[in-house]
Design brief:
single chain; 3 helices; flat; two-stranded parallel ribbon; mainly alpha
């Protein structure tokens, strides 16, 4: 989180997210260049499962186990 805050203190940097969970730390809302809607418009269980599978597949491929 420290590195992200240092980056946000630089000129012309922006951070956009949809949910507080995506934001990761509510103290980031103190930055004027952080925009969080604090809501999602349709994260279904099926979408979460697909995203989790994609992340795990990417990790396996990165580690050479794919």
């Amino acid at each position: 989180m420290k590195a992200l805050k240092q980056w946000l203190n630089k000129e012309n940097t922006w951070y956009y997210c949809d949910t507080l969970m995506g934001l990761g730390d509510e103290t980031l809302l103190e930055f004027c260049n952080v925009n969080c809607q604090k809501r999602s418009s349709g994260m279904t269980r099926q979408a979460v499962e697909r995203l989790n599978k994609k992340v795990l597949d990417n990790l396996r491929n990165y580690c050479g186990q794919g």
